[in-house]
Amino acid sequence: MTPAILIDVTRCTGCERCVAACIKRNELDPLRAETDRATGVDGLSANRWSTIVQVDRGRFARKSCMHCEEPSCVSACLVGGLTKTDAGPVVYDDSKCIGCRYCMLACPFHIPRYEWDETIPYVRKCDMCFERLQDGQKPACVEACPNEALLFGDRNDLLGVARDRINRDPQYKNHVWGETEFGGTSVLYVSDVDLAGLGWPEHLDNPISALTDPLIHMTPVIGMTVAFGSLGLSWIIRRRMTRASEADGEDGEHDAKS
Amino acid sequence: MPSRSRALKDVLWALALVGLVAGVFRMWFGLGATTHMSDAVPWGLWKVLNMVAGVALSTSGFTIGFLVYVLRLEQFRKYVKPAILLAFLGYGCSMLALLFDIGLPHRFWHPIVMWNEHSFLFEVFWCVLLYFTVTLIELSPSVLEQTRARRIGRWLHRLAFGVVIVGISLSSLHHSSLGSLFLVTPVRLHELWYTSWLPFLFIVSAMGAGMMMLVLVRIVYARLYDPEPVFGPASSGINGIVCQIPGISVDSGGVPERGPEMVRLSKLAIIAASLLGATLALKVVDVARRGAWTGLGQGQWEAWLFGVELLIGLALPIVLVAIPRTRRSPYGLGVASASAAAGLAINRLNVGIFGYLRDAGSFYIPSLTEWAVSVGVVAAAGLAFLFFVENCSIFDERSVVARQPGESLTVLFERWSHVWYAALMSGVHRVTLIAVLVIPLAWILLYPPYSGDNIPTVPVQAATGLDINRATLWLNSDRKGVEVTFAHLDHQNRLGKDSACHLCHHVSMPNDRSTPCSRCHRDMLSATPIFNHAHHEQAVMEKERLSGWHATNRTCGYCHPPGQAKTSDNAKDCFDCHKTDMWLTSAPDSTINLSDACAFREAMHRTCIPCHKDKAQEVKRPNLAECYTCHTSLTPRQLVTGPVTANLER
pTM higher than 0.90, yes or no? Predict the structure, then answer.
């Protein structure tokens, strides 16, 4: 089973109970979480790992880590501090992080945030309440949702639920956001309005690691090719130079004789 | 020592010291307080200018090695040592700048033991680390030959060919990988710069600009120490500089004046310019291939940056090198190489910073600290360069400073230590003087912005009654010894007995008439949120008899307008419901915000001082509104300079 969250935008009332539960569960500073919503670019910050965004008139959607199936941040992190667990969530190990912030650059959804105010800062993002999942509980946001706008379950089951809702009710847009985006995500959205308000990038069907992986696997080949190419080139040139000087020498001798 | 290099050294020392102060601030206060990087712009000046561009400008270490050791172009053998020195210092200063940039510098060694071979940054880290070692091995013979450890140097020198090949291989990997770093941002980087060709563009442009950098360094070295080989025999004096306008200045024979070295430098510049030409061609083809011209046509500011980058970094140097007159003039070549290096830096800044700003929706101008560290690190590398040039034979057969053969390492480094050791021993020295002037100046200039925002939490303790009737109250709210004895009963009687409560107790809790100050103003220094949301949900639910599955969720609309994000700004006014049970001194207006209570100290001062000032005029006792009227526990000195007055203004 791959745990996933399905977000039904038509059911979300924007009460922010999920956000409050997230703040409580992760022991974030509520005051900072509140002020960061106003000052941050999109409401997310190191003190606020999930937020509610108004995507259309009267339509709200929770914004948080998408827990991609093939995450760009995981392939980007040079020390392997971010991992896609078998249980679904993309989790962050702060004992490895060196603070290079490449994950923040690599994430197409702009999710990882940095503790800029700290002297010893770490990257912060939603971990789908990984410890709760291990205890067999739902993520805190799903549990807190009073309107069943957030559903937790197996990804394939949830895709079925999403398809079912779309087929039954014509008001839904015929698209499950997160089914194929960037190679698929573990957070899925169904909606009756366009979700551009979430600040997502334009649609790409392949995971970002598909752009870099083939290249990086060529690294040893390129390195060896260049090394042996240079060696070979140098050998050829040296031989030709030796021959040329020998020929010069012979010519010289010949000239001297004549 | 020539006075010109002395003046340059003074400037470099000053810049390096400013950078040092800024670096200390960065370590002390953290990234957020000292830089303008943010969640929207996570990579700033240090990473992009010092690492990506700095490493790119140090390519000469491997390109000259390739020309000399592989292609056997013996005429460039003279440039091997300077190129290696340039690479060594370039990589060194990139790594130093990175130490300031990464959030947890004490963990810089983590990638050595913790591997993620899918990451291009991991590859760059390893290649840079290994290549830095390579340059160290390549450089050490030139340093060791000045010392008694000459034999180790000679032994290392024998490895040269193998080391050069390893260096070429590593360089070809990480110079392209620096471009591949940005391949992960297909949806964020502006279309003018994002292309799958980034690795090729990066390595080719870096090779060209890196060679140009070597040309520039050679010309600058000549200007500083030994003008004759480059600037020609007549230019050793001051007059030589004045009449050396490119292409115009001629000596009596009608031939532009120049030294014998210029022939070789021009050849190197031609190679560099052809690489820059290849970059230009690749770029034009790439943009046309992807149809990204639209961005240029729409007049976006990115298009201007792109144009500037092409013009300064590629077109201008190519043209200058193509014209024989400027190519053979040291000044023409100097301009060409400086513009190529600057253009490469602009290109890397575009790819690493500016290309993201449209997507990030915010702008980034590096802070003073970022500039200071960035420039300071380069200045320090410049100083090290001058040191090596003067003490080892880098450009010429013998070093600038004459040296007895067989001097030990300690002597070599004693010259280095001259800078502070001799300075401290023998009184006022140049560098000490610079340090004394510059460090405090940098401190003053850089310090102030970082004191804000970090207000500590100091819980407020309730006032204590000093007598049984609470006629006199003891206010020592943070228990830090700053106390006020407040004659409560006296104030009450003077102001109108039982009808006077509301004059000070400006807002009361529901069904209360004199809520104590500390009930809401719960922190000494920062504001406290006082609105209990959960309690209100419950109250509304009970009052409206809401029931069903999610009764509390149905309460939202009671205060928040439908169809809008639920914030305290657009919620219903408190006094719409609390018409009778809450007291407010004046009519409710939009300025009073009941979701947060201001800091206790602010609240006290705002309540007492205006009233005391009015009374002071009324009863003609001018001292009634002075600090010491209430703060009897503070000494006059504390009252003048202490925290109270300072924060009162704020």
Answer: no
